[in-house]
Amino acid sequence: MSYHPIVGKRFNRWPSIYFLGGITITTLIGCPLYLYFYGISWSGFLIFVGMSVLTLLSITAGYHRFYSHKSYQAVWLYHFLTLGFGAAALQQSALKWASLHRSHHQYVDTEKDPYNIKKGFFYAHVGWILFWIRSVDLTNVKDLQQNRLLMHQHRHFQIWAAGFGVVLPLIIGFACGELFEAALFGIGARLFIVFQVTFFINSFVHTFGSQKYGKTISARDNWLGSLLTFGEGNHSFHHRFPNDYRNGIRWYHWDPGKWAIYLLSRLGLVWDLKRTSKQALALF
Ligand SMILES: [Zn+2]
Ligand SMILES: [Zn+2]
User: Fold this and answer.
1) CA of 217 to the centre of ligand 2 (A)
2) How far is the CA of 220 from the centre of ligand 1 (A)?
3) How many A from CA of 203 to the centre of ligand 2?
4) Distance in Å, CA 73 to ligand 1 centroid
5) Which of 31, 145, 165, 196 could disulfide-link 88, Cβ–Cβ 3.0 to 4.6 Å?
């Protein structure tokens, strides 16, 4: 069977359209109104920032660099937390995410690329999720299917997503006496930001910036893209050296995922960090 991740039919996926629309309106209209009339408590603010950072890192350092590219190894607790907070991002299971992402690398800029930028900025950003049907062929993630915890997250995704993405922030909010703020900012605004940050990786840094590490594909390096994507903006480098645990290889490159992975390696929680050799880098 030939591998093809896209069924290729245009289709309005109404549940996703309503959900993303609701999250967007809540964040862009509801949150500013709430802040104008009531402000935000310290606990509400910390729940928002804490949930946002943990969810974003679980996508960039977790779903992306750890599971899709296997750029380092980690203790069981790290698997558990990245699968948990990764599920909280509501971007499907780590198994499906990694399968689509590996297809993106293998077939970039072609029909088989799930978020093919050649179909336009909007399609690569979010159109592929809202208006197209695709099937996910899991034959390119056979290695990940050996991971029992990851398979548990795949089979019981709703439980993981609800537990880490909804119940956890609500419990903390309830304990702090800020249940409503935990729902509005810790779930609503946080999801909006995490969605947009992830979407920009497929749209913005496949459109704007320099093609330092390969002129034949659309991936770009862009410092503004790094800010917008929580450190995934050196995308030309990433497509050339996808197994490197870093995205920004210079110390001044904004890359929270790289710093988090490095810090955890110093604590002995992750190891075997893969780096591109100096000889390979010297070619560019
Ligand atoms: Zn890409
Ligand atoms: Zn990648």
Assistant:
1) 14
2) 9
3) 14
4) 23
5) 165
- Among residues 153, 171, 194, the alpha carbon closest in space to that of 23 is found at 194
Number of structural domains (the chain) is 1
CB 75 within 8 A of CB 272: no
High-pLDDT (> 90) share of the chain, %: 93
Residues near 191 by Cβ (< 8 Å), separated by ≥ 6?
A: 23, 89, 90, 165
Ligand 1 center to 256 CA (angstroms)? 18
Mean pLDDT by 10 residues, the chain (284 residues): 53 93 97 97 98 98 98 98 98 97 97 94 95 88 97 98 98 97 98 97 96 95 95 96 96 96 98 96 90
Asked, for residue 115, whether it belongs to a domain, the answer is yes
Q: How far is the CA of 1 from the centre of ligand 1 (A)?
A: 25
Structural domain includes residue 193? yes
Q: What is the pLDDT of residues 62-85, one digit of tens each?
A: 999 999 999 999 999 999 999 999
Q: What is the pLDDT of residues 85-105, one digit of tens each?
A: 999 999 999 999 999 999 999
| Domain enclosing residue 94, as ranges | 6-282
Residue 276 Cα to ligand 2 middle (Å): 15
Cα 51 to middle of ligand 2, angstroms:
23
Kindly identify the ligand whose nearest atom is closest to the C-alpha of 63: 2
Q: Is 1 among the domain residues?
A: no
The model's pTM = 0.94
* Ligand with the closest atom to the CA of 238: 2
